[in-house]
Amino acid sequence: MNIDKSKPVMVTGATGYVAGWIVKRLLEEGLTVHAAVRQPQNKEKLKYLDAVAEDTPGTIKYFKADLMDNGSYADAMKGCQIVFHTASPFFLNVKDPQKELVEPAVFGTQNVLEEANKTASVTRVVLTSSCAAIYGDNKDLESKPSGKFTEEDWNTTSSLKHQPYYYSKTLAEKEAWKICQAQERWDMVVINPSFVLGPGVNPFGTSESFTVIKQMGDGTAKAGAPNWNLGVIDVRDLAEAHLKAAFVPEAQGRYIISARGSSFPEIAAILREHFGNKYPFPKKVLPKALVWMFGPILNPALTRKSISCNINYRWDADNSKGIKDLGMKYRPFKESVVDFFQQMIDNGYFEKAK
């Protein structure tokens, strides 16, 4: 595949947590970015991307588009060879998972990829999926002969009632592959990140990642952290993976993008080690029985089934394909956690430290 970097590239959900860093890296590389956003007239929401554009050689152009508005990506996609589809809702605490998670994820994917079918210039789509499309619960690892999740795996245990966010990501990626395989002009590379951490281009992002780290330091989790294991990836490394997926001609298929496994107690320990006792970080590991009993009362998104199938279960995934094909290198996890929390301190998330 011959990739022409003089052509514009389109990014959906350009003001999002992951997309913000993708846009930043594209602008640093001198590309023209067609940023598809819901409110291009909202200068306040675009100010962080505008600031990046001022300091980089690339050019950013805004286009109005919405996941749920059929055909709304046509103008933004015009003339683009590469399309990055990152836009998808990431909320765990929802009242109607079908309307709030599944429909925007699946219909949005259909909307963007069917527009790619109509846009002759498009030759590659880079889709931001998730490890949530690979597994539903940590317990699922027990059925894997290698003891690791791989790109061959698909989530078969999530549903509207159990892990609905994971379910939405699974349905959306499957729909993307269905659309891709029904045509031959453009190819698709899928990025499957684990839990994303690290400072945002917009320091006031709405991703669940911000919520988790904020609660580590604002006293919400001072009683302790559950032994919930998960994969972790720095948002800056994840952006790099997207660029490699776009511009390495040989890139193909799915890529698990995850630096390593971690846990909530380890994240808390890193914060305590670096920032000391200035903030009410969790110091204890909460017993599973206690979380099972009180967790759903304190957080409706935390069901007893999800607690049963995840806490105290191991997490591991094979990230070798991304290292081999894309040349991925991962920064130390401690750096991701410390930089993220420091950004929150700098932006007034917490009361003044003791």
Topology record:
Blueprint: E1 9-12, H1 17-28, E2 32-37, H2 43-54, E3 59-64, H3 74-77, E4 82-85, H4 97-118, E5 124-128, H5 164-181, E6 187-193, E7 195-197, H6 208-217, E8 225-226, E9 229-234, H7 235-247, E10 253-257, E11 260-263, H8 264-275, E12 285-286, H9 288-298, H10 304-310, H11 320-326, H12 333-346
Parallel strand pairs: 1-2, 1-4, 2-3, 4-5, 5-6, 6-10, 7-9, 8-12
Antiparallel strand pairs: 9-11
Helix pairs in contact: 1-7, 4-5, 8-12
Question: How would you briefly describe this protein structure?
Answer:
With 354 residues, the protein is of the alpha/beta class.
Please, could you describe this protein's structure?
This protein has a single domain, classed as Rossmann fold (3-Layer(aba) Sandwich), CATH 3.40.50.720. Helix content is 40%, strand content 15%. The protein is built from twelve helices and twelve strands. The strands form three sheets. It has a seven-stranded parallel sheet with strand order 3-2-1-4-5-6-10, sandwiched between helices. Strands 7-9-11 form a three-stranded mixed sheet. Strand 4, helix 4 and strand 5 form a beta-alpha-beta unit. Helix 4 runs parallel beside helix 5. It is globular, with a radius of gyration of 20 Å. Keywords: Oxidoreductase. This is Dihydroflavonol-4-reductase. InterPro entries: Epimerase_deHydtase, NAD(P)-bd_dom_sf, NAD(P)_dehydrat-like. It comes from Uabimicrobium amorphum.
